[in-house]
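Please go through the sequence line and C-alpha cell line underneath and see whether the fold suits the sequence. See right below:
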Amino acid sequence: MNILKIYSFIIFFFALTAGSAQHNIIINANLDAKKKIITIEQKVTYTNLSKDTLTQIFFHDWANSFSDKTTPLGKRFAEDFIKRFYFAKDEERGGTIIQNISDKESRPLQWGRHDGIQDILWIKSSKPIYPGESRTFLLKYQIKIASNKFTRYGYHPNGNFSLKYWYILPAVYDTKWNIYSHKNLDDLYAPIANYQIHFTLPSTYEIVSDLEQKNSILSKDETIKTIQLEGNKRNEANLYLEKTSSFYSFPSDGVQFISNIDDNDLMPEMKSVATDRIIGFLQKKLGPYPFDKIVISENDYKSNPVYGLNQLPDILRPFPDGFQFEIKQLKAITENYLERTIIINPRYDAWIKDAIHIYLMMAYTEQYYPEMKIIGKLSKVIGIRWFHAADLDFNDQYFLAYKNMARLFLDQPLLQPQDELVKFNKNIANAYKAGVGFKYLEDYLGDDNIVDQSIKDFYTQNVLKYTNSDTYKKVLLDIAPLDVEWFFEDYVQTNEKLDFKIKSVKKGKDSIEVTIKNNGNNTMPISLYGFRKKDMVSKTWIMGITGTKKVKIANEDISKLVLDYDQNIPEVNRRNNYRNLKWIFNKPIQFRFLQDIEDPRYTQIFFIPEIEFNVYDGFTLASKFYNKSFIKRNLEYNFSPAYGFKSNRLLGSASIFYRQQLSDYGLYKMRYGINGSMFSYAPDLLFKRFSSSVSFYFRPEDLRSNKKQRLLLRNINVFRDRDKENPVTTPDYNVFNVRYKYSDFNLTNFLGYTIDYQISKNFSKLSATVNYRKLFLNNRQLNLRLFAGSFLFNDTEKDGDFFSFALDRPTDYLFDYNYLGRSEDTGLVSQQIILAEGGFKSQLEYPFANQWITTLNANTNIWKWIYVYGDAGVVKNKNISPKFVYDAGIRLSLVADYFEVFFPVVSNKGWEISQPNYEEQIRFIITLSPETLIGLFTREWY
C-alpha cells in the first residue's frame, strides 16, 4: 500500500512539473452556414493534475445554455428584465445535440446532465483516473448556434459568426469540481489545454483567431475548405468567421495585433502608434505576452466597455478620436492580456484581475493623458467649465461609480461571487472599487513602485498557471514595508464603507490634538493633512481607528486640517473631512446652477428652473433649490417656490428627507421625512398639504433578489380653500396612514401586495391590493389585480363620496397621484385614470362605495402590446344592496404602467362602443415624471 502511494506521488510530481502535462483537445468541426449548425467530433485527452483519483469528469456545455427559456441563462435574462431571449423565435436560440460519447476504443460511456442542469455534463470514466494519468474521451455532437443578439456571440444577421463557448470542454478540478452555469457573465473557468482544430466551412469565409493557422485545404469543387488551427497552453479558442473581414492587423512590440474595434477612421500610423504604446506599457508593467497573436473584437469591448460619456454617439462624444480609440483598445487589450495568461476562477475570485485591470488603466491615463478630464473637451466650454464635473480627472470616474452604489446601500464585497452581484456591481462598480483600492494602497505605502512591483511579480510568477488572489496577497506581504492586512480583511472581504470625520480639535502651544471619528466598522487607515494657508506642512497616516482616536501633530501655524486631501481614499462621504482653524465656517457656501457632482470643499446648494402643468395653474415655473447631487446623499432637501401663470398665484413645495442604513439586509434602511406643497385643486382654489413620515425598508441577503418590503407610517394634513358656490363640509382634514407593501418581480413573474390602513376623525378604512403578473412559456401574459376595501367606520356622508372607495377614478384626497386635472368631470384630462382602488376603466352608475368594495381586474395580450381586459366586482353603499359591476375592452400597453390607452367595449351600460360620444369613454394612463420613467431603464442594473 505504501509503495502504491509512493508510485502515485511520483506520477503526480512528474505530471505537474512536465511541460506536456496539459489536457489535449482535438476538434474536427464542420459548419453548415445556412442551418447555423456545427457538427463536431472531439477528442479530449484529460490529464488528472490533482492528488485525487477521479471516476467521472465534468464538462461545461455552455452552448446548450441557449436551448430554452428555463436554463440558468434564460432565468438570468428574466431576472435582468432582458426580453429579447424570452420573446425570441425558437430558431434564434441554440443548443447541443449529443450523438455519442465513448472512450478511445469507441466503447460507449455513461453520461448525463448534472442535476438536470442543461449546460453541465458528467462523463463516467471506464477506469479510475489516478493522479498523473490521462484518459481519452470521444464526443460526437452538433451545436445549433444561437443568435448574437443575446450575448453578442453567435450568428450575425449578415451571415458572419462570432464563436465563444461553442464546444464542450472539461471543467477545472482542484480538490473539487469548479462547475457552474453560463449566466452571461463571460466568466467560464476554462482549463489550460493544447488545442488542435480542423474547421471545415464554406470557402467564402475566413477565420480570425489567436491560434496559429497551420494550413488551409480547399475542396476539389472549391466550395468548402478546411482550416487547421493550433495553440498550446490556451484556456479559450474563440473564432470569428467572416465573409469580408472586419479586422485590421499590424505587428506591435513582438506581438501580432488583430482587432476590429471601431477605429474612428484614424490613420493606420496613429492606430499603430497607439497599439504599440499600449502593448509596450503592458509588457513593462506585467511581463512578456507569451503568445504570438492577440485578437481583440468589438464584441469583447462592448461586453465590458469603458462606461461613461465615451459611449455617446460620435457627434456628441467629448473625447478626441485618438484618445477614444486608445482607451477602448486599452480596456480590451488589458482584459484579454490578463484573461489569457492568469488562470483564476473568474466567478469566485475575479477581484484580483479586476484590480490589476483598472489599476493599469488608471496608470496608463496618468502617464499619457494626465490632463484628460472626465467630461473631455466639454471641460473647456464656457458655462460647463464652471461645474465641478469639469474639474474632475478622467480617472475620477472609477471612484464615483463605486460611491454611487455605496450611497445606494447596494455595494457588495469584492469576494462576492459574480453571479450574486447586482448588474451594476458586476459590470462596473466592483471592478472600479478593486482598482481604486490599489491606488489607496499605493498612497498608504508612500511608494508608487511597491504596488507596481507586486503586480509584476505576481504576473511573472503565475503566468499560465492556476492561481488565486491569496497568491497575490503573499507576494504583496513579502515586499510591503507596512502592515497591509487591513486591505484584505476589511477592504476586499467586506463592504464596510470608509467614512472618517474630524470630530474635534484642541490647539496647544506646540501641538494640535485632533480627534478623528471612524463612522464605519473597520480598521482601515486615513491620512491627515495640515495646511498653512495653501501650503501643505504635514501628512500623517492614522491606523486602527475604532470609534474615535486622538492624534497629536506639530502646531506649525496650521490654519486648516483635511482628511485625505489628495482624495486617494474611496470614502463615501468627504464632506466632513475639513476643519478650518482660522474661521467659524469649515467650508464656504457655493451656489451652482443645475445639478452637479458633489464637491466636498464647499457646502453646495443647487438651483434649477422647473416647469410643471395642471389645468388649474397652467404652466408653473419653479426655482428649485436643493442639495441632491448626481449621487444620492443621506440628507436631502428641496425647496421649490413656484408661480402659476394661469392661476397667477405663488405656489410651490418643500421637503427634507434623511436616510439611515441599519444593516446589509433584513431591516436595512429607515427614511424620515417632512414635506409640504401648495397648488390648485380646482379653479381658483388652493390646497396645502403637509406630511411627516417614517419608512422602514426590508430586503433579503441576496441583493439580486427583487423581493422588497416597505412599511410606511405617515401623517397627512390637508387644508383646502373653500368654494363659496359649492362649499364642502370638511375642507380641512388629517389622516394617519399605515401602509405595508411587498413586491417580488422579474420579467416572467410579478407578485405584489399592499395593505393600507387609514384613520381620520370621521372615518377609518382598511384595504388590500394584490397584483399578479405571469409571462408563460408561449409568451402569453396574464395580469391579475384584486382589490378589497372596507370602512371600519364612516361618518362622511356630509362630504359626499370624497372619502369613499372609487370604482374607476379615485378622488385622491391624500394628494398622492399626479392628476392633470383632479377635479374635472368632463374633457380630456377627466379621462386620465390611475389604476388604484377599483381599477375599472368604464364610468358606471355606481362609481363609489361608502361601505365596502371588491374588484378583480384582468387582462391578457392578444398581439404584442395589444391586450384584452375585463373587470368585475361588487360595490356596496349604505342602505343600498350590493351591486355587481363589470366592464371589458381593449388595452394598448405602449409602455406598460406608464403610457396606456383603454377602449371600453362592453359593461353594465351595454355595448359601449356603439353608444354616442364614445370618444369620451376612452381612458388613458400617462406618467410624466422623469424619475419614474428612468426606473424603466435602471431596473436591470440595480
The domain at 350-492 is CATH 1.10.390 (Neutral Protease; domain 2). The chain has five domains: 23-243, 247-341, 350-492, 500-587, 643-939. The first strand starts at residue 23 and ends at 32. Residues 1-20 have pLDDT under 50 and may be disordered.
